[in-house]
Amino acid sequence: MSRKRSTRTGWNIVGVGVFLVMVFPVYWMISTAFKSDSQINSYTPSWLPTQFTLQHFRTVMNTPGFWSDVTNSLIVVLVTVVIAVGLSFFAAVALARYRFGGRKLVIVLVIGIQMLPQTGLLIPLFVLLARYHEVGTLSGLVLVYLTFALPFCVWTLRGFMIAIPRELEEAAMVDGASRLGAFVRILLPLIAPGLVATSVYTFITSWNEYLFANTLLRTGHHYTITLWLSDLTGGQRAIDWGAVMAASTLISIPVVVFFLLVQRRIAYGLTAGAVKA
Amino acid sequence: MRQRLTSGATPYLLVLPMLLAIVVVLGYPIVNLVELSLQQYGLFQLINHHGIYIGLVNFSTIFGDSVFWHTLIRTVLFTAANVGLTMGLGMLLALLLERVSLAVRLLLTVALVLVWSTPPVVGVEIWQWMTNVQNGVLNYALTQLHLGNFIQHNWYTTTVSQYAMVTSLLVWGALPFVVITTYAALSQVPSELVEAAQLDGASAPRVFTAVTLPVIRPVLLILTSLSIIWDFGVFTQPFLLIGPDQQNPSNYLMSIYLYVEGYGQTNFGLGAAISIVMLAIVAVLSVFYVRAMVRVGDE
After folding, report:
1. pLDDT tens, position by position, for chain B (299 residues)?
2. Can you list the alpha helix ranges (DSSP code H) found in chain A?
3. What are phi and psi of A123, to 5 degrees?
4. CA distance to partner chain B, nearest, from residue A41 (Å)
5. If DSSP codes are grouped into helix, strand and coil, which group holds residue B144?
6. What is the largest CA-CA distance in chain A?
7. Helices A103-115 and B268-297: crossing angle, nearest 10°?
8. Which of A16, A203, B137, B207 is deepest in the core (most CB within 10 A)?
9. Integer CA distances (angstroms), B200 to A3, B33, B195, in order
10. Are B82 and B231 in contact (CB under 8 A)?
């Protein structure tokens, strides 16, 4: 018994070590954001922000472009989420609730597209958007994000819908509700968590996107927040690491908060059905 | 009742808007991709919206270019290293999660979720700060641990060292998904079976290969193929961490080669041809994943 307990203690020590290594980069970002410049620029790093300051957050928020780029990101992300989740919802109902000719083809299409590397479509999407004068516009970026958001949303929502027993709707219909009535009163409340999870995940991936924003928006006047952040360290000037880390912290906050809400459901969605409970 | 659910135009009406959107935002670009790959299409053609058909010249240019072959080999090695590390470490950490006490498991889960939710561009910024030449914490820590003199060491001078940094960032970022999913799969392994095998005197590695592995195999296969596909096409982290102005033929990955040759040099026809080659490779790699998922979807 005591041998077993000491093995457990050994594993716990390894576990704490892994925890420290994994969490350190995140800790280093946050603690740097609160350190004074003299602490940051010292050749001997200090492990704790002993000279605690909010100066870097003030610098970031007063930088020209920060708030307008946050706004641009929010516009692109929200429009993408509303269109993607709206359209996918109906498609997911069809895939989960009906058998119809071509169903399998739609499934192959939806899964196959998710596997395309985004870089592979960079050239044709750029040329097409250039043809319609959409390079440098936020609406062009929304179109591109829809390409990748739609298949994911359809597939994930389908998974949530399958988990809801068909008999619930059928029972409501037997009790005299119309198909639409059964849908609105029974299916919609049950699928709401799925809609939230899908929306949040689409929000996060669009908020984080860099490649297409970098390719499409450079020639225009609107930047997104990822472009703004990457430009902080891209130039030849001396880098203000305090500000970079404060900005990184600020940009991560909405993602972390949202992510905590949906993390379990998304992990399930990506590998759904591979393990049968 | 069943009749009403299996026939009629309703499913088509429901799928139609999404399919239309996919055709517009995806079908059109794919047709355009094939067209472009057969054309000479540069800045001039972009302004006039008109390419010049040149047959398969773009493809023969690529296959005759030693940079392409070197990039392909580099990308394959890079992918193998990343996937091997991600899956190996991920598996070990998932097994570790099973063996630690509740409190430590909670601690580890918090760390994993924090890492998982860090935006890729933010991850790049953190790595740049930790590995910077003047006063990065990595150089300081390695020197303090007496692993050598790393004061003012520049990690971005050689291709191997550059990619060691990129790999550490990518594996760090990819681990949470792999660990949490594998851990969930491990919890599906029936404990009676494990105990029975132990009672019969099976060693720990034997229990793992004979009882645990068969149960979690499908999940491991899906995670491996997803990792291969993601790492093969990765762009943001290598592009930004090594630096947009530091990309050159000696350190290209496939997606960056495509970006620089196609978009950077405004040779869109050539870029389209590279895209098609890359998409073909990924299509072959993802056959397993797509087949597994279609089987799930068709149930």
Report:
1. 444 445 577 778 888 887 888 777 778 888 999 999 999 999 888 888 888 999 999 999 999 999 999 999 999 999 999 999 999 999 999 999 999 999 999 999 999 999 999 999 999 999 999 999 988 999 999 999 988 889 899 999 999 999 999 999 999 999 999 999 999 889 888 888 888 988 888 888 888 888 888 888 888 988 998 899 899 999 999 999 999 989 999 999 999 999 999 999 999 999 999 999 999 998 888 887 777 777 766 65
2. 2-33, 37-41, 55-62, 66-97, 103-115, 122-131, 138-162, 166-174, 179-182, 188-208, 211-217, 225-232, 241-270
3. -65, -55
4. 7
5. helix
6. 76
7. 130
8. A203
9. 20, 60, 9
10. yes
- Determine the residue type at B90: G
Partner-chain contact B18 A90, CB within 8 Å: yes
Measured between beta carbons, the chain B residues lying within 8 angstroms of A12 are: 100-101, 104
Amino acid in the structure at residue B278: M
**With contacts defined as CB-CB under 8 Å, which chain B residues touch A268?**
184
User: Are A25 and B22 within 8 A, CB to CB?
Assistant: no
Nearest to A48 by CA among A28, A21, A74, A63: A28
Interface contacts (A, B; CB < 8 Å) = 307
Two structure tokens written together for B142: 């390695």
The alpha-carbon gap from A139 to the nearest alpha carbon of chain B, in Å, equals 12
State the Cα–Cα distance between residues B159 and A268, nearest whole angstrom.
37
Give the tokens for residue B249.
Answer: 């033929």
Q: State the ipTM, two decimals.
A: 0.89
The two tokens of residue A228 are 């703004």
pTM reported for the whole predicted model: 0.89
Q: Which of B15, B226, B279 sits opposite A120 (nearest CB)?
A: B279
DSSP string, A165-185: -HHHHHHHHHTT--HHHHIII
Residue of B1, B6, B7, B25 to mutate for A, most A C-beta atoms under 10 A: B25
Chain B residue at shortest CA distance from A241: B129
